[in-house]
Amino acid sequence: MKLSSELEQFDIKEEYKEYFAGLVHFARRKYRIGEAKAEDCVQSAFLRLLTEGETVISPLHFLYKCVCNNVLDYLKSAPKNKNQTIDDNTELVVSDDNCPFLKLKKEEERKTVRKAVDDLPKIYKEVIELRYYGELKNKKIAEMLDITEEALESRLRRGKALLKTALSFLRE
């Protein structure tokens, strides 16, 4: 199975050495917490990876997600001073633009969708690529393929239905 081979390639000792400092820096920069607490959160993430390693699809994503959750748990449970309030809506939550975990996840999803499109039957793959990757209008695509717009719309509908089925695991 491909998922387990990715974990097997993830040597925990080597990855700890390689990613520990970066994860600590990430936690300190994003959440403005002390170095000792950031290190605790990162160590907890690595420990969780060790205990749940067999069920983890992408170890690096898992680590970033764990660090985010560990820091947020710490901030929510830490004693609050009068000037500090922590809740789910504060700026402490990582933005989509800067979180390495979310960037990697989005890139993997793009690759997965691209592979699913490539695996479609030719008549559906062709119209999906022209419409969504080529950003062409339906009328132009219909002219290029020498079919009616209704036939094109039918192919797009069927192609999207096949993609939806093929990618249903992403929504879980």
Task: Summarize, please.
This protein is mostly helical. Helices cover 71% and strands 0% of the residues.
Which structural class do you get from the secondary structure elements?
A: mainly alpha
Number of helices: 8
Number of domains: 2
Number of strands: 0
Low-confidence stretches: 1-7, 84-94
Distance between the termini: 19 Å
Q: Percent range for helical residues?
A: over 70%
SSE ordering: HHHHHHHH
Residue share in β-strands: under 5%
Q: What do you see in this structure?
A:
The chain is mainly α. The protein has eight helices and no strands. The two termini are 19 Å apart. Residues 1-7 and 84-94 have low confidence and may be disordered.
Describe the secondary structure blueprint for this structure.
Blueprint: H1 2-9, H2 12-31, H3 35-52, H4 59-77, H5 100-118, H6 122-133, H7 138-145, H8 149-166
Helix pairs in contact: 2-3, 3-4, 4-5, 6-8, 7-8
Summary tags:
disordered N terminus, mainly alpha
